[in-house]
DNA sequence: AGCAGCAGTTTAATGGTTTCCATAAATGTC
DNA sequence: GACATTTATGGAAACCATTAAACTGCTGCT
């Protein structure tokens, strides 16, 4: 491995001269500069970022902590962040929490130990109002941008999120306008702000339409296709009278719809199903899903912008980006009577 | 930020004592060790990996260079590699080539500059027999594992790949057994070994069945859904007499099938369509796709194993993992006459 | 003479670890 | 019991690759 001193020895100058020449500092003659650069290239010199980082106290490294790549939304988000970071000369360390707080903590600590210049965090949401790592991040003044909504334990941080409240509202409104009066809601983990906001949007849209929010129509599903499938089974067993299902994300919607289709329930003729996110899944799903498009690329770009603000010492404002309704084949006018009810009576 | 010297000053001992104590070196008494550890925890000490890396000449860092996360197969592969690496105490730097050789080169160089302990590379395949960066990697003896097949320009490297030849063969055989005689092949970029192998498997299966390989049935698509869609349009325009379509991956298959379905072509009654990879897309696609399951998790684990071998100074053997046929709804017995032909005559 | 500017060099610092050395206690030897 | 030898414990200096800051001659200008 070639080092500065090797070049210096070979050229018969001091290490500093080489260092300055390669970095185009002013007090080296142009002749020397070109000579050093040529020599460096010829010898295959690659600067050691490790040493540079130690000396300069900056690593040009970001840490990116996400639940996993199982959710396709994150794949796009990571792509966007990575893309902008790369342009700016930053590299990105990837870490998975797998929705596990301990795991999240070890990831963050490792990244701190690597002296990352900043952290992008998709937090594992908890009900507690405090989380030690997050407290420490604040104490250390580590630049950090929350990918998603803040919660009490991370309220002090900069963040970038989808306006899930409005988005949930728009989606429910869409179903209401189609004539649905009994709309089921499949929620995600209760501690997550995105579930809460999307639910609140749903609630408000119903209220606005003069419809009651019925506890029997609220299901706690989760975030995976399996969770959606389970919820579907439960709805069938209960003989729910819903004519439409609003799922907290595309995966849950797909898992739910899959079960219904297997029971020969027709979508959207018998029941409407809508998702959230506009992942590739929703586009190519058996019945293309009506959904809200999460502005994945814009979220990533905005997150990097906020990070740059933090690095400059400014306090970026919280950003909320709007999602767009994407109407596909899975939503339509309600049937005369709920199909799930019929399914139940058929069985008994 | 707390450093060793701060702890040393506070405890009234030398830096070395603290360093050794924290690392459980033998020549420090247990009493001192616990005292130092307590103090370190209390003061919130986080070791500086940058400095450790500089001194120890090892960073516990892997570089992972992939085309992008647009292909869901890579999301799983990255997850698997990351998972094993994390357990072993390594962190992972992620870089995207976007199928661009220059971009690939800058990614690799950056990672080299960061003194990564090893590289996982999903190469941008080229027809040239040499690529400078890869030559340099060899010269520097950087531990590197190719994710996928080797090509002439990277034949010297360790690699981990799916046995695409056999897999392609199995898939075509499946269609032949269903009774298909006119099977179209939608290839990916010609320079890629995976296209070549899957095609070769297709060719051999046809030969074995006594069927001819007809140039008119070979299409050069690409790797995205859009590429698949274009190929479908071309097939329709040409009035192809194919009764089955074997696509080089799930995305191409989905894009192609989507166009056909829009033309009211029924899958699999009118035409069979099979993909490759068993991504989530194939499972939830409008017509669940028959496909080959790429052992994504095992590929990742095998790649990390090879890397560990390299780090120990051994030369790992090349690994080829077998894919499994996953039969879903998109493949069936052929129709009496090709539908695409009929579509064409209908139009004219 | 005094001062600015050029083209470098020397020194010190970044934070931690390896290698070698120093001290004292424990053990061994006759 | 006196001395050598070993062992336990800890410290000093060098080192990893790079860079900021201060410094050294030297030339040219006023």
Can you offer a commentary on this structure?
The structure is a homodimer of 348-residue chains. The first copy, chain A, is built from 14 helices and twelve strands. The first copy, chain A, folds into three domains: 44 residues, no CATH class; 131 residues, Response regulator (Rossmann fold, 3-Layer(aba) Sandwich); 152 residues, Rossmann fold, CATH 3.40.50. Chain A has 348 residues and is α/β, with parallel strands linked by helices. The model of chain A has no long low-confidence stretch (mean pLDDT 95). In chain A, helix 2 crosses helix 3, helix 10 packs across helix 11 and helix 10 crosses helix 14. Chain A is 47% helix and 14% strand. The longest helix of chain A has 16 residues. In chain A, helix 11 links the parallel strand 8 and strand 9. Chain A starts with a helix and ends with a helix. In chain A, the strands form three sheets. Chain A has a six-stranded parallel beta sheet. A four-stranded parallel beta sheet of chain A has the order 7-6-8-9. In chain A, strands 10-12 form a two-stranded antiparallel sheet. Chain A is elongated. Chains A and B meet through helix 4, helix 5, strand 2, helix 6 and helix 7 of A and helix 4, helix 5, strand 2, helix 6 and helix 12 of B. Strand 2 of chain A pairs antiparallel with strand 2 of chain B. The structure holds a DNA duplex (30 and 30 nucleotides).
